[in-house]
Amino acid sequence: MSKDQDDFLKELLNDFKIEGAEHLQAMVKGLLELENDINSQEKKTIVETVFREMHSMKGASRAVNLMQIERLCMHLESVFHEIKNEKLQLSKDMFDVFFQATDTLETMLKEMDNPNKSVSENAISQLGVKLKALSLKSIKHSNADYFLKEIPTERQGEHLNTESHAVEEKAITIPAEKEVPSEPLPVLKQKEKISETETVRIDTAKLYDSLRLAEEMITIKNKLKFHSDQLQLFSSNISNWKRKFSEAASFDNEEELKEKELLKKHDEALADAVKNIEKLQYDAGRTIDEMILGLKKTLLQPFSSLLAVVPRIVRDLSKEYNKEVELNILGSETEIDRRILEAMKDPIVHLVRNCIDHGIESKDERVKLKKEVSGTLTISIASDADQKIKIILEDDGRGINREKLISSAVKSGTIKAEAVDSMNEQEINMLIFASGVSTSPFITDVSGRGLGMAIVLEKITGLGGNIAVESVAHKGTKFTITLPQTLATFKGILVKASESLFMIPTTAIFKALKIAPDDISTVESKNTIRLNNEIVGLVSLADVLGVRKRHSKQKSNFLQGLALQIAQKKLVFVVDEVLGEHEGIVKSLGPQLKHVNNIAGATLLGDGKIVPVLQIAELINAAIGKSFTTDFDHEEKHENSDADVQKRILLAEDSITIRNMMRNYLETAGFDVVTAVDGQDAFEHLQSERFDIVVTDIEMPRMNGIQLTAKIKEHAAFNHLPVVLVTALESKDDRKRGMEAGANAYIIKSSFEKSNLIDTINRLI
Asked: Do 100 and 44 belong together in one domain?
């Protein structure tokens, strides 16, 4: 096969994967409707729809040579052909086989690109036998002989493929009253019109790529704003200088007057340039925002695509637990960002499972409680004017057992027993999202481990949303999830902590505040403040991040604080300065820094500075248990103490990537870092500069780390300096060589972020 033909086939297979999923979704939806009301007035229409979906999927799979899928669709189609023509009566016992077939089709669709298939030829044959057996159970006697001829024995194996084709052929050539009617012409014309002129099927990966490129333009917008502000400042300074110059100059002669006129022209030209750049910055910013918003709208998708799996889950769990559950879905046409929709699949499914497992009672229980035998699960979705999406999952079951919930939370260490009395109803309900907390008396594949709800909360908050719980005993439980309609471009507040810059996502900021000495009180040996009638812990951002404090020479009667909140966890972080809001994109740290705690990524400011973006959930967890200490009146006393003198590190590393990475890591921790490209370069630095410690790689040109360590320890002027070896060499022999050379610490490079490198350095100096 030529490359062009191969590429074309791949394109066809990708198209079929999408089309097949759509056909399968429609089939499952129809089957669920038929099972729920087998004598529905719309039964004939639904059967017709399901039959056409099976027929279309069969034809499409044949076109791309997916013979297994074609055969299974053909078995289903043969049964539904008889149901449609009223030669076969639907019965409840048929649906388990129908759903087994649709599950198999779903598996085959998912494994299209996987060379190792889990569905065997024999499995398809056995499903074909089961589907034919259904026909034997319910078929009218007048047609029984016709179908008996077509049913193979279980041992016929691969002959089923040939005979199935025979069934298909007979279904097409039987007398007119048994023929499959073709689709009405107007419907075909309408479909062609929609597919050709109103919609375009495009790979979502291409849309994501386009959106990422568009979001990169935010950096250009920020740079334009920065340079526009700089130019405006420059123009203002020139104007001030011109005014002073004009006041001082006499302009007595013709030459000076000419200079004055020339200065005026330049000033006017500069003013025009400032106006033009301001207009360009405004127009570019607006265009970039509109472009990003437009691309985000192309990624909107209705909730129906996510909720399509819910009826099947409810059906299966209801049968498994012998419960009757009526499912109501409202607002499924509401649209949301496809990426959010995909991320919400597991949380929604988990909440549905919990509502059925934990919430809705068994039939006998409901009868005893004088409730309707059938429980109700309602899922409603709506959007508001602020482009927020609200999802409500509500059941009419037993409600949350607060005694069991509190007991589990205390047992898992989530809360202390004495803290319960001070908790309100909402805080108690939110304990179900704590890891390790469960009200289930035993563990099943659905619930009981106390992890699922914690993951639900993590997913929702990670998308910039939140979740609330309401519950009334014997009345039911309601989960209210609020999500953004689209994944918003990152916005954060730029702060300074001990001369280092950090970005805090605005979604995590509950409140910005100034803290006076009288606002701080001590509770259980920890400093706290009162915030909206709630006692909240007070910590230093610099302390939590391990950034060395530098005392300010400026006295202040207030501290700057930011109250950060994730779910029900709230803390106030003290910072040196709040520098304003920033819009941009967040880049990941990459594999080399994947173990760095409390940092989600980095963003680029308009002036080109790279700033770490804080991971708030990790930050709050790291801060719990820490306490903030401050002395408003005596900060200047410590300015010149030895502890506050910035320590200098000599870093020797031949890889420019790792060298820059480690320099940034150490500088963020508050050290003054000088770099060297190898051991020889490092030793030359030692002879002309003062350092407190040497951090070095081992494998380097000219002079390696072992040789550098030995030379330092042999030299009377520097043998007091601690040496830390940070290397990729992990063997005991390498470690022994390092220690024999006189190194004070040996750290493996692949995990230096996790190995308390900063703590090691602090201990040694």
From this structure: yes
Classify residue 193: in a domain, yes or no.
Answer: yes
Query: Is residue 138 domain-resident?
Result: yes
Among 621, 604, 602, smallest CA distance to 612 is for 602
CA atoms of 5 and 8, how far apart (whole Å): 5
Query: What mean pLDDT, rounded, does the chain reach?
Result: 77
Identify the domain containing residue 231 by its residue range.
Answer: 204-299
Give the total residue count for the chain.
Answer: 765
Half-sphere exposure in the Cβ direction for 742 (13 Å, CA):
17
Q: Is residue 406 in some structural domain? A: yes
With CA atoms as reference, report the closest residue to 551 among 638, 666, 646. 638
Decide if 586 contacts 600 (C-beta within 8 A): yes
**Is residue 33 included in any domain, yes or no?**
yes
Q: How far apart are the C-alpha atoms of 517 and 558, rounded to whole Å?
A: 7
- Within 10 angstroms of residue 408's Cβ, the number of other Cβ atoms is 20
CATH, residue 657 = 3.40.50.2300
User: How far apart are alpha carbons 314 and 330 in whole angstroms?
Assistant: 16
CA gap 347, 471 in Å, rounded: 19
In the chain, DSSP finds a helix count (H) and a strand count (E) of 24, 23
Q: Mean of the pLDDT values across residues 212-218?
A: 75
d(CA 666, CA 647): 11
Q: Are residues 677 and 759 in the same domain?
A: yes
Q: Dump pLDDT digits (tens) for 48-81.
A: 889 888 988 888 888 778 888 988 998 898 888 8
CA atoms within 13 A on the CB side of 504: 32
Least confident of 472-486, 565-579, 621-635, 722-736: 621-635
CB 651 within 8 A of CB 673: yes
Coil/strand/helix, residue 47: helix
Strand partners, 599: 614
- Under 8 Å between Cβ of 23 and 60: yes
Based on the domain organization, do 41 and 178 belong to the same domain?
Answer: yes
What CA–CA distance (Å, rounded) separates 708 from 3? Answer: 56
Domain count across the chain: 5
CATH number of the domain to which 534 belongs: 2.40.50.180
Kindly provide the residue ranges of all beta strands, DSSP E only, lying in 44-110, ordered along the sequence. Answer: none
What is the dihedral sign for C-alpha 664, 669, 670, 676? negative
Residues 186 and 142 in one domain: yes
* Distance between CA atoms of residues 221 and 471, nearest Å: 47
Cβ-Cβ contacts under 8 Å for 748 (sequence gap 6 or more): 726, 727, 728, 730, 755
